[in-house]
Specification:
Layout: H1 14-21, H2 26-32, H3 37-44, H4 46-56, E1 61-66, E2 76-81, H5 82-86, E3 108-113, E4 116-127, E5 132-143, E6 148-149, E7 153-160, E8 170-177, E9 182-191, E10 194-201, E11 210-211, E12 218-219, E13 233-235, E14 238-244, E15 261-267, E16 272-276, E17 291-295, E18 298-305, E19 309-315, E20 324-331, H6 345-353, E21 356-362, E22 368-375, E23 378-386, E24 391-394, E25 407-409
Antiparallel strand pairs: 1-2, 1-25, 3-4, 4-5, 5-6, 5-7, 8-9, 9-10, 10-11, 12-14, 13-14, 14-15, 15-16, 17-18, 18-19, 19-20, 21-22, 22-23, 23-24
Length: 419
């Protein structure tokens, strides 16, 4: 007698299978690529890679730049889950040779975009015979999640070191052009009164580049004490810099007025510049340089007010002057507990006047903000500020970290090889 029919196997539609896989982390997906050719084809397809990258942004990371006490250039860069970092565990990150930049023949990270880190090596070789030097620049793209590394792109420039130009300092930025699906490096340097700009298509292995229009203003990184903070902030297909309208003759605080500050934005699609005005509430020159950053997918502008407050403005709609809102105003008095208790009240005012703080990231619920701090007589460190109760604590990672060099990062499957 027949007691029942056999259970039919469950078959997932292609769309549902695609959706389920896009929620998995990179490590799991890399293993699943080995199960079948069809799975490998799906996971490697550009459409799936883009969809997965968008979902990965719900689990943000931050790159921690760990300094080596043996050699300044021998840094390790380790992606670390933001949620875990904001939980503030007492931890020492173990040494892992894989994350050493020297193992990749590089020294610095230029930027982070869609899970790719742009690595840089830059040095100069002088030729005493003709008073010139050759600047050697090398880029690589690195995906730490898939553990893939691109080929080297090597660029060489020959420069005179005779006056009036003197020694030439190069600056770098990194971003993504949506219209062409190309990752680009921006290289800029000043010769005399002109700041020249060249763009290199890293996704195409471009080692020649092309010169675009000169900087219409002067990047603040040329005069600021912390140039790497304002080196170029990527958002929505643009790279942005804090800048001044005119070149500063001396220290920036001596000969600058409030109307000199501006944000300059480079559209990576059209490769043209535009200028963004700062919030109208920014009406006094701060004692330390202001900075820009990306928080909660919006461009933000930060500065201090005398020795009293640290203020963050958010541009709700990118490029629209009227969309600036004051996101946060922190009293220095509420965070005093995280600094040296030996600082007396009479010293605190002077201490705060030259305190530099730079916002790194928010928690998902917006309750906690991580800030990098750089103060006189106090080591560079990071604090966690709780918006609900106006309290602050120091982070408890015991490694020596360059907090001002951290980058936002997401794990992705984006390939590093040249097209």
């Amino acid at each position: 007698m027949e007691t029942g029919s056999a259970t039919s196997p469950v078959v997932l539609s292609d769309d549902l299978f695609f959706e389920v896989l896009s929620f998995l982390n990179v490590k799991s997906l890399m293993k699943l690529k080995c199960v079948a050719k069809s799975w490998n084809s799906l996971i490697s397809h550009p459409t799936f890679i883009k969809s997965h990258c968008l979902r990965s942004k719900r689990n943000p990371h931050i790159t921690l730049s760990l300094a080596s006490f043996n050699h300044y250039y021998d840094k390790s860069v380790i992606p670390f889950p933001l949620t875990r970092l904001l939980n503030n565990p007492l931890i020492k990150i173990p040494h892992d040779p894989y994350y050493q930049l020297s193992k990749k023949d590089c020294c610095f990270i230029v930027g982070s975009c869609n899970g790719l880190l742009c690595l840089l090596r830059h040095d100069n070789t002088e030729n005493p015979k003709d008073s010139t030097f050759t600047a050697r620049i090398m880029f690589r793209l690195w995906n730490p999640a898939t553990k893939t590394l691109s080929n080297k792109i090597q660029i060489r420039w020959r420069k005179f070191i005779n006056p009036p130009f003197g020694f030439v300092m190069y600056h770098f930025a990194f971003g993504y052009d949506f219209s062409t699906d190309i990752y680009k490096a921006v290289v800029y340097f000043t010769l005399g009164s002109v700041t020249m700009v060249k763009i290199f298509d890293l996704s195409l292995g471009d080692s020649v580049g092309r010169r675009i229009e000169d900087f219409p203003v002067v990047p603040l990184s040329y005069k600021a004490r912390r140039p790497w903070v304002n080196e170029g902030v990527y958002i929505s297909g643009t790279v942005n810099w804090m800048a001044t309208k005119n070149k500063l003759k001396h220290d920036w605080i001596i000969d600058i007025t409030i109307d000199q500050f501006v944000i300059v934005s480079l559209d990576l699609r059209t490769e043209t510049f535009s200028q963004l005005l700062l919030p109208r509430g920014f009406d006094k020159v701060p004692h330390v340089e202001p900075s820009i950053s990306v928080l909660m997918d919006s461009l933000c502008f930060s500065h201090n007010i005398d020795e009293k407050y640290f203020v963050i403005w958010q541009m709700k709609e990118f490029g629209v002057q009227e969309s600036w809102i004051q996101l946060l105003k922190i009293s220095y008095g509420t965070i005093r507990n995280v600094f040296d208790p030996k600082i007396y009240c009479t010293e605190w005012v002077s201490y705060c006047r030259f305190m530099f703080m730079h916002p790194l990231c928010f928690s998902e619920n917006g309750d906690t903000l991580m800030l990098a701090c750089d103060c006189r007589k106090h080591p560079k460190h990071a604090i966690l500020y709780n918006l609900r109760d106006n309290s602050a604590v120091n982070t408890r990672i015991t490694n020596h970290i360059h907090w001002l060099r951290t980058k936002n990062y997401v794990e992705s499957l984006v390939p590093t090889h040249w097209n």
